[in-house]
Structure formats: C-alpha cells, structure tokens
User: Fold Putative MFS family arabinose efflux permease from Halolamina salifodinae.
Amino acid sequence: MVLLIMRRIAESVEAARAEFRGDGRGWSVVAVALGWAMIVGTMLSVPAVLPFVRAEFTVSNTQAGLAVTAMWLVYGACQFPMGLLTDRVGERRMLLGAMALGAAVAAAFAVSPTFPVFAASAALFGIVGGLFATPRVTLLSRAYPENSGTAIGVVMAVGNAGSSLLPAGVGLLAAAVGWRAGFGLEIPLFLVAFGALWLSIPGRRPAERVSDDKPLGELVPRVLAAVRQREILLVTAAVTLTFFTFQGMTAFLATYLVAEKAIGDSTAALLYGGLFAVAAITQPLAGRIADRTAKRAVLVAITGVYAVLLVALVVSGERLVLGAVVVLLGTQRGATPVATSYIVAALPAEIRGSGYGLLRTVFTTVSSSAAVVVGVFADAALFDAAFLLLSVMAALATGCYLLLPSAEL
Assistant:
C-alpha cells in the first residue's frame, strides 16, 4: 500500500511539473509539496511518540493529550495573523521561515529534557504549521491561476503521504532506538525542504508587492467585508461542515468498525490506511478535473457521494461492501483543493493571505470539536446516530455547493 501511495503521488507530482515546465515553475510545486509533507508529518509524529514520552516522563494520558491539543489550537489560532503577515512580507519569506523554525523545533523535540519542554515544543510547532499553511495556498493560486486546483491537489496529496509515512518512521525509530531519534532525523529533512524552496521560489520584486501596507485598523475591516461575500460564505460553510464530519469520522472510524461492525483490529487498521491512500490519489485527480471542467459540479458530486457513503457505512453489513465503503470515504478529501482554489480566487489579491487565513481559522477551530461530539454519542451507545448526523451535515454541505453560481470564477 505504501508503494502504491508513493507511486501514484510521484506520478501526480511529475504530471503537474510537466504541465508547468515551460518556465520552470513546476519545481515550486515539488518544493512546496515537500515542505507541506514535513509539516503534516511532524504534526502527526507527535501523537505517534506519546506512549514513549509518557513512559519516560511518567505523565498521564490527559497531560500527554494536552500537548497535542496545544499544538493544534496554536495552529488554528495562527492562521489569520499569519495570513496578515503573508500579505505584508510575501509567501517566500513565510515558507522559508517555517522550514527554518521547523528544523529548530525538531531539534528542541530531540533534546527535550522534561515533559514541559516537549509540550512547549509541540505548541511551538503549531506556529510552524501556521507559518506554512496559508502562504502555500496563496503562492500556488497566484502562480497557477488557471491550474490552481491541480497544484493545490498535488501538494495536499503529498501532505497525505507525509502524514502516513513520517509518523510511521518516527514510531519505528522510537521503538528501536528511542523517540528522540525520529525528530533528530527530521532536522536535515527540514533543511532540504528549505533549500528546495529557496531555489525554486523567486523573491518578489517591489513592483509585484500585493499588500499596500495600510494600517492594520484599515486592513481588518476590508478583510471582514471580503469574506462576507455570498459565494465565500457558502463555500466556507460547506468546508467547515465537511472538515467537521471528516475529523469526527476518522477519529473514531477504527473504533466503530471494531465495536459496531465486529471487524478485527488489524483489518480495521488496514481499511483506515486504505481510506487515506484513496484520499492521496483523489486530491490531485479532483483538482485536475475541476481545473478543466466546473468546480461547482466537482464539489457537489464529491460531497453528495460522501453523504451517501456515510449512510452506507451505518447500514452495510456485508464485509466486502463495508470495506469498499470505508476506503471510498477517502474520496471526500478530493473536495479540499477544489474548494480552496475557489475561495482564494474569490478573494481580492491584496488581502488574499489574510482573508484565507481568517477562513482557515474558522475551519480548524470549529472542526477541532468534532471528535468530542462523536465521542459523546459513542459513550451514550449512539455510535450509528453519530455517523448519521455526520451524513446530514455532509448533505447540508452539498446544498451549500449547489447554491453556488454555475459560472466559474
């Protein structure tokens, strides 16, 4: 499965690079994808080493969980201010800063002498993620206005690979030689990503500056006015709903399969991995299709099918059908690059970073509560009801996409 993921993603990256080869810009997609894989992979490596961290520092599950929660909360809170900063200093500086700080935080993880230092490093890595998340999208949307869905889809697919492979490698090293070794190995990888970004992304000339350097008090009202456009509100509502459903679903999917569907632990884990393999394949494919057809149609199709699949997950009893449903749930991730390129294209260029950063704050903050909601249903013996609720939310998201104008941005 790992080889399949890597082969399909490599094909997607090469296809995108070939498509933009004329002026060498295709290498920027590869560099941004590598950087994003390091960000996502490291953020998911933190929970992967928690059993080893707990054993060494003798902390409770609650304390260990707080370190992960702090990282994601900081990550979400950073989106809007980092978007504002992107509009002021440019994407190149933000992306390079993220890789440099990422290497430093990986070193801090690797030498953490106490649990508070480990937890502080986790929170600091939330800033690293915030530095990279918004400018990666605005850079690609500006560089490839006609093919932004393809470029963003490739980057997100490689991020999915990072989220699968890097935590697995860090976990194996943790078991073999200690949990610090994996983070130590990430340091040169961050530096390689730094070098790739430095070489592939040119500095912006003064004439190309997007921000007009207006005072913050004047800029914020303009951002708020821009994100209140009907189209942006509809897509934001749909993305927030689907982010919520996907986080809630994936947080308890393996548990649901074992507890409610009598699936073995190993089979449940295999199906869970298959879901993300399908997600990694779907993202660049959906982006390319949307760039050539109609974003609205792609969003409606993917999200509508996702709502049906959530119902099928509950009602399916036959194992082969259930397995197919589980892995096909990964197709929902294909909507993310399409919706992202739709939003960014609708925002004024001079506030694109800050506007998208504000919307990402909404996505990440609201969806972070999904696991708690599904957990409450599960504790009340209402697991099926939880997934049916998620299907209703996915249907509402489909309705939001249907209300978008048919004309493309």
In short: The CA atoms of residues 14 and 30 lie 9 Å apart. The longest helix spans residues 230-261.
